[in-house]
Batch of 2 targets.
Target 1
Amino acid sequence: MRIFTLLLLIAASLTSLSAYAEDGYDLWLRYQTLPKSYAKEVNRTIKSLVPGDVSNPTRALAIEELQTGFSKMLGKPLPTKSNASKASLMLLTSKALAQTSNDVDTARLTELGDEGYLITQAKINKKPVTLIAANSEQGLLYGAFELLQQMQLQTSLKELNRSSSPKIQRRVLDHWDNLDGSVERGYAGSSIWDWWELPGVTNPRYKDYARANAALGINGTVLNNVNSKAISLDHRYIEKTAALADVFRPYGIKVYLSARFNAPMELDGFENADPQNPKVRQWWKDKAKEIYQIIPNFGGFLVKANSEGQPGPGDYGRSHAEGANMLAEALEPYGGIVMWRAFVYSEHDAEDRGKQAYNEFKPLDGKFKDNVLLQVKNGAIDFQPREPYHPLFGAMPNTPLMMEFQITKEYLGFATHIAYLAPLYQEVLEADTFVKGKGSTVAKVIDGSLDSHKLTGIAGVANIGHHRNWSGSIFNQANWYAYGRLAWDPYTDSQAIGRDWLALTFTNEEKFVEPALGIMMRSREAVVDYMTPLGLAHLMATGHHYGPGPWVSDLPRPEWNPAYYHKADKNGIGFDRTKTGSNALSQYPKEVAQSFADPKNMDEKFLLWFHHLPWDFKLQSGKTLWRGLIEHYDHGVEEAKAMQQTWQSLKPYVDQERFTDTAQRLQIQVDEAQWWRDACLAYFSEVSGKAIPKDITPPKHDLQYYIKLSYPYAPGN
Ligand code: GCW
């Protein structure tokens, strides 16, 4: 008997040992010990490493990362060799490769551009090696991260023969981080940038930030909030920025800053910031010179102007193009760019908020300098769980448009609801604008292939904070990861990305990956269903945007009221954006407009975004709109419960710490999906005068109960 208990104890400790507690800090760079069988194959295929010239800082980091990965996955670093030998791992630029006898198809290298890489089995000086080749050291670093990722995924190295290059040039993270350490719409604690201690203290975390991003091919970071402070351009802060730029440079990550348009006034007491004032123009030129003196590879400026109270060229009756071009002119001599945001709407403009940015920017097509990217949010309102693609995509062929996605979940449950956003990103990227015939997708607009733009870009509003798990929850990490993968290649499938992320983050056990992937792939649709189904939008509570607030209609700015968006009353619900309403539909090419014009024959996911309909309108299911709406809310709650149940079944595959953390958040998600459902149905039943059908569970509380709830300390606001 005693032997048996002893054996049991040993077995138990072994399993918990294998799933030791993890805090999520390592992200997709966990480099777990490889299973014996696969480790054998790796040890047979790669026996040594030929580092080459490690005086190059990027090369040195590639070698360092490889040795870190091999040490952790195989228990020891690779012995190094100075020349090619049988089963060595070699990193060669195309220039160095040309100095060797080899059987590599060099045509594949030319296609790779500056940042691409090739990983393949090859003969170098007659020796069989595993080769990482590229046209630059940066490409070799990306190749090294890719090899380590494939090893974590246990991809057979013998068959590994892949080349990849980024389809978008500037792949940027936008941090809405303030200088006091707070993060606007941040749900992962305070900012990771310690502006007070910089430049003197460079926290080792900055390097891990750079590693995590370089592993995804992200090559730019905007450090400060778009609601920027002029002091970010003060010399002291430029020195602080330079310290971060030095850490990020060898990882191929450029630093950008959000620039406050009236900085000449706030920093140097100028009387105005008018782009037609030569002194103001000179100020920006001097500022650019000052920055590049200490940050030679500075990326440029991100600007939010004449939007939500930010200063801008409109203050002087100048256009956005005039404003952007002034900054672009200042940065041009140094290769800097301007990312000018099109997120512009005004409370003084009674026009449908969803139409204003198009009306403002379309007439400026082709008026921006070559080093200006116009940064456009994925939808015309504001990062809702679902929006039709922004009508500016495809409407400005003579201006390079940059996509802005939100990774932080301002409107999708912060860090307490699981919502895998890659399906949302993919839905927008795959949207067809038809501007140059079928297949003129948003992805082709932003990768520049549709209108042959050389300068291309994509931005993601980061979900990063100082929490050990970086993103506030483990599953929020998947959105940072997915954004990075889609920024590199916007045609990647969100399911494939999810599968890779799960295997890198937890285990690649099929019995875990498939059900966990099921949770991820249904999560965003679940959130749509229990928050804003059938094309509804912006029903969130005021300010912090957490939880339901469809009843809000008295805010000073009409277009901040949820009632402005759902327009629910006794007769019906929805925002009429057709000819009989705001006619926002006319901003879309005719093929797209037609696809949304007929409420009886359209994708009902966008029904109430474009139409105001009576409660008894017949849906394609034959049900009334009221009934259909109720069933979507109920379905959302059921989906959240199903996600929770599935997660419970995955306990054996996940370490206690991350399992419990996720399980607790899923419980909140289930409770709050119910809250959303009950509050919205209580409200819509009230305004419509429609009763909750007998076979439907009525909301737990009366409407007043939900209206009274308030969350003054909700994060991110
Ligand atoms: O999404 C809204 C947010 C603001 C944000 C703004 C923007 C940074 O509520 O917090 O401000 O949009 O994108 O500029």
Target 2
Amino acid sequence: MSTIGPEAVDLSPEELRDRVAVELERTRRRSAELTDAVDDEELVKQHSSLMSPLVWDLAHIGSQEEQWLVRDVGGRRALRPDIDDLYDAFQHSRADRPELPLLGPDESRQYVATVRDKVYDVLGRAPLEGRRLVEHAFAFGMIVQHEQQHDETMLATHQLRRGSPVLHAPDPPGAEAGGERRGEVLVPGGPFTMGTSAEPWALDNERPAHRVHVDDFLIDSHPVTNADFFRFIDAGGYRQPCWWSEQGWQYLAHAELSAPLFWQRSGDVWLRRRFGRLEPVPPDEPVVHVSFHEAQAYANWAGKRLPSEAEWEKAARFDPSTGRSQRYPWGEDPPEERHANLGQRHLRPAPVGTYSAGRAPSGAWQLIGDVWEWTASDFAPYPGFEAFPYREYSEVFFGPSYKVLRGGSFGTDPAACRATFRNWDFPVRRQIFAGFRCARTPAAAELD
Ligand code: AVJ
Ligand code: FE
């Protein structure tokens, strides 16, 4: 696994170009795997009204790459200006995309390959300085992350797809001895640095670095598991309005929810459908495919709450021994297999108590990878935020409609995951690979 971080500042332009080429190549292999796994009919079909047809994601990846790297960075002539509108996510809702005169599977594959050829040419010639867009190859990093984000979206489409399994991957490692010992960790009150100004490929919403005071809080050492969630269900959690916000209860009643998405009851056991396989819900895995509302209701029932985004980030990266904020819970080094379940190496979360090498200085486990974690926070700009390079990446989504998720999932690539990375979605969404952990404010007696 690889990604580009602050060390890129010391790379020669040749080394930087080589690293970018490796990332582009690695990312395209994943897009090809996700789209080659099904036949043409399944590529153009809509598997859920929540998602685009896979063939839309593929050509959209090419279209963004053409606009930013071929036209803008490269200053080259447009290849397919006629299709800009079809692949503009703001022009057509996901539900409407199957009806558009989209490029077919072969055309889409040819299109992304042609764009990529031009991009390698641009990468070889374009100066990587002089304009903020190209400093440290930012535009290339943005496009790598964009493709990886759509690869995670395509993985979610695969999860929604009905039919026999087409994706295969080994299971993640088992929990480590003692790793399953769960509890809460205390993060003492005080300021820490949130966000980043040093990460060359950080996106606009992660910037700038700024000091934030956070009061004392306790946060779960591990994500909430399926076994935990069984208890919530068995206790009648889905039938008792007292645990739910008003908005959450309305949504629950309307959607008639009684368990996480993809679960079904069989006698007295819970089964789940996972990439086309029906299997018992494993008790020790982080719960996944729950909405913000379900996460919030569970936390209320448990006598806790969801962490704010600042709490989550402080628990994930603040090292009290140095007073500094790290790139990742384990330090500055890019994610390796031993740190976290990222990059679609496994098609499920690892059980809690895995990846001791990835623990944060706070003592919390599995903050990166496995499941995205819902936070209590609305998606909002940091003080000093500047939209860059386009308002439609983050700025147009700021406001109370979206909740922030942190940490990445097993479906997230390391290039699009770090302790500062911010994801967001509607609080009702469940098809994303989202779970949560709880937090609470300690009583005075607990601080002695
Ligand atoms: C950051 C995951 C919310 O998929 O809507 C992809 C990423 N932006 N294309 C999304 C994104 C433009 C975005 N999320
Ligand atoms: Fe996109």
